[in-house]
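Revision sheet: structure tokens.
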Amino acid sequence: LMPMEIEGQEKMIPGQSYVIVANHQSLLDIYVIYGLGLDMKWVMKKELRAVPFLGLACERMGHIIVDRSNTEAALATINKAQSRITGGMCVVFFAEGTRSEQTEVGQFKKGAFRFATELALPLLPASIHNTNKVLPTNTLNWQPGKVKLIFHDPIPTTGLGNSDVPNLARDTREIITSGLNET
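Predicted:
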């Protein structure tokens, strides 16, 4: 049993699609967000496609699998997925690109922010607390502890473009980091 507290879920408008951007500390992060019951697709690196059962299941469920080593292929995959992101369907990005080894939030990759601006979808920053203490990276050694998920105010992207992506990435990272520093 892992107690979980959710804060700010009321900031999500029913039927609105969002690009959810979260920090990534542990394998548990996926379950924390997935457990909310939102209609969503994950953006995941192609290396996860090779994980037995998980990779095939994620592909069949329509999650977005990108080749991070090939920018053109990654963009083509994301562009192909854009038509499915309507009517409340959300897309989840762990913008650091991989789990953080330390507690500090890593630099954000630009994909989530390009995706949001191209579709004019609001960004929904999310701070995930303590999953790295409950299930540390590179271990299956579960520890008792409470997890907290904070949704911050959505960031509108209507009218923004590629030139705004670096600022969106920086601002979103600052919001998520400040949320982690609250507790």
